[in-house]
Amino acid sequence: MSCSVLDEEQFRQCCQLLLQRSDQLGDGWSWEAVQGSEEGYLRKTALRSVPSDWGPLHDQEGFNFHPQPQTLCDSTGHEKEEQDPAASTGSVFLTAEEDDDGSYTVTNGSSLVLQYEYHILFSCSYGAPVLYFRAFTLEGRSLALEEMWSTIHPNYRLCLQNSPLNAISQQEHPLLGQPFFFFHPCRTEEFMGPVLQAASDQGRPVNYVLSWLSVVGPVVGLDVPLQYCTPLHSAVSLNSTKPH
Amino acid sequence: MADDKDVLRDVWFGRIPTCFTLNPDEVTEREAEAYYLLLPRVSYLPVVTDKVKKHFLKVMRAEDVEEMWFEYEGTPLKWHYPIGVLFDLHASNTVLPWNITVHFKNFPDQDLLHCPSNSIVEAHFMSSIKEADALKHKSQVVNDMQKKDHKQLWMGLQNDKFDQFWAMNRKLMEYPTEDGGFRYIPFRIYQTLSDRPFIQKLFRPVSPDCNAHTLGDLLKEMYPDALTNDGERKRYQVLIHGIEPLLETPLQWLSEHLSHPDNFLHICVVPGDLFHRSPY
C-alpha cells in the first residue's frame, strides 16, 4: 500500500510546481512565506458569482436566510436545474429552462457576487494539505457559516452533511490567527490513497497538492483548470516504499 | 514526592478566580453588578459561563443582546483556547481576580470564531483530541474508540467528572513499551509578541540515540529565544498550567501528565518577572 502521507518538504515542492503552472496559466496563485523561514502557504483570491436560488441567501440589504440546506435536494434527487457541478463552479451560474419546442432558454437568475480568498496550508499532524477559505460580500461583510453552506452546490452539500466531524467548519488560521473556514484534513489520506496507488501502479508521477485540490476545490467554487495536468517538466512522486 | 496520579488531579481541578464586569457601553435597564466565578483552567469559556450570561441578561432587554463575547484589557478572548491558557498568556503576572469584560454586541468576527452552541465547543474539543492522536498513535487509538467513548470524553470535561474522563483518556496515554513514548508529542507554544498565534511542529519524545527529550530540548528547537543563556538576565517565563516546569523535565512525562484534556501540551511563553511564582 503506498504511503499517502506528505511531509513538509514534499508539500513545498508540490506547491512550487503548482505555482509555476499557475504563473503560466495566469491562474493567480501566490506563495506567502512566513517571515524569515521556508514555511509558507499558497494563496489566491477570486470573485465568484453564486446563484441565490441554490439556497436562501441574504439579499443586498441584510441577512435573511434559513439554515436548512436539505430542503433543496429531496430523496428523489429532483433538482431545479440539471447542472454539472464541476462545470459551473468558477463561472457565472445560468439557469436553463426547457421551452415547448425542446430548446433551452438560458436566463441569468439572480445571483450574488462574492470575494473569495483561498489558502493552502500544510498540516504536519495529518501529513496533508489543508484548504482554508473565507468570503466577503462586495460591501466587505464576511460570510457566516450558514451563508457559506448556501454557496455550496446542493449535490456537494448532501455528501458533506453525511460526513462526520462537520467537514467544513470555522477554524483559527494557524499562521494568521484570524477566523477562516476549513475542510477538516482527517479524511484526506483516505481519498488520496487510491489516487496515489493508481498512479504508482501506472508509473505516473503525481502532484499530491494538485490532485487533492481538484477534489476539494470545486466544492467551494475553486476551479482547477485541466491545463494544470499537461505534463510538467519534473514532478514530485511519492515512492510507495517510502517508510513513514 | 507526589504521586504522578496526584498531578493529574491537580491539573484537572486548577481554578482561576475571575470577576466578570459588563462592558459599560452596553444598554442596560439598571446598573449591572459584577459577577464572581472560579473558572476551571482546563475547560472553555462557553461551557462554564451560562451563569454569567443569565446574570447580565437580567438587566438587559432582549433586543440589545447578540452573541456574548469576552475581552481582557482590549483583547478579545479566544473561547476555543482552554481558559488556563488564556489566563497564562494575557494575565499571568497580574493581581487576582482576573478581570474580564463581558460584551453582547459588536462581535469582533475578524478576531473570534462564532460559538452559537456547546456542540461547536464539543466539535473543537474532539477535533483537538483526534489531531493529538494522529500525532501520538497515527489515529489508531481514537479510531478504535466507539462514538460513545468519544462522548464520554466530552461529557467528562463538560460536567467536570475527572474519573469519567480519565477512564477513557488513559487509553490515549498508552504507548508500546519498546517505543519509549508517543510517536510525536502534541504541543502548541503560544507567545504574545508575534502575529503568529502558536508554534506547532513535529517533535519526537525520544532522540534517535534513545535519549529522552526534555522541555528544554523542545524549546531549543522550536523557540530558542524563550531560553536564557548563561550570564543573561531571564527574559521569559515558560508556563504550563500556570507553573514553570524545570527545563530538564522529560517531554514524554509532561505530555502524559500536564496535557490539557484535549491531549495537547499548551505552553505559554510570556515576558518574565524575577519573582518566584506560586503554583497554579
UniProtKB/TrEMBL annotation, chain B:
Keywords: Acetylation, Apoptosis, Autophagy, Cytoplasm, Immunity, Isopeptide bond, Membrane, Ubl conjugation. GO terms for molecular function: Atg8-family ligase activity. GO terms for cellular component: Atg12-Atg5-Atg16 complex; autophagosome; mitochondria-associated endoplasmic reticulum membrane contact site; phagophore; phagophore assembly site membrane. It comes from the Eukaryota. Pfam families: ATG5_HBR, ATG5_UblA, ATG5_UblB. Residues 11-104 form the Autophagy protein ATG5 UblA domain. It is a peripheral membrane protein. It is found in: Cytoplasm; Preautophagosomal structure membrane. One of its GO terms (biological process) is autophagosome assembly. Residues 120-174 form the Autophagy protein ATG5 alpha-helical bundle region domain. Its main location: cytoplasm. Residues 184-269 form the Autophagy protein ATG5 UblB domain. The keyword Membrane applies. Belongs to the ATG5 family. Involved in autophagic vesicle formation. May play an important role in the apoptotic process, possibly within the modified cytoskeleton. Its expression is a relatively late event in the apoptotic process, occurring downstream of caspase activity. Plays a crucial role in IFN-gamma-induced autophagic cell death by interacting with FADD. PANTHER family: AUTOPHAGY PROTEIN 5. This is Autophagy protein 5. It comes from Gambusia affinis.
